[in-house]
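Schema walk-through. Below, the input block comes first and the output block second. Nothing else is stored per chain. Lengths vary across the set, and this one has 210 residues.
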Amino acid sequence: MSAATKDKLLEGALRTVVEQGIAKVSARTIAATAGVGQGLIFYHFGSVDELLAAACRYGAEQRVARYRDRLAELGSLTELLEFARAMHAEERAAGHVAVLGQLLAAGQNSPALAAATAAGLGLWIEELEAVLTRLLAATPLEGFADPAGLARATAASFVGIELYEAVDPQGAGRAFDALEQLAQLAAVLEGLGPLSQRAVRHGLRRGTRT
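--- output ---
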């Protein structure tokens, strides 16, 4: 019963942020959404901020698990972008990226929430880094592009595009289009023969030395 109640509170906290926004989050609104008494929030988590921090980690674990198998099946950077577009649409419709944006903003004034949000993003970054490491190995970019840095840039841009889309949908669309052009360039590099790939690597090495 205790574990079930905690799950209700975690899910209730996330639903409250989705449906009412971070400004309306309180023990009363979370308890009402979860269908439990307010006192259980403090019994299980100690404070509303601690509940939100736990909910952030819980939500990230749920979302990453949802996409893990699909990420493992990706075979190229182009497929990764197509997946990112589809995932962005799914997550936006469900309100999850907006929640992350609100938690990032709220974390400016809450160290516990900031740490939890960073940990939640870290789960996404870990998955993305593994995928990028695998996919870049099939291109001449292996050894020149930093998968760890790219994973962090991707996670940050994912949230940024979501926030940007709210005020400039066309601009957000163009941002995705620009990423698609880069993916198409990567696809061309993947299709080069061994000699051409070696020439590209040689050119990249020369560029990094200058």
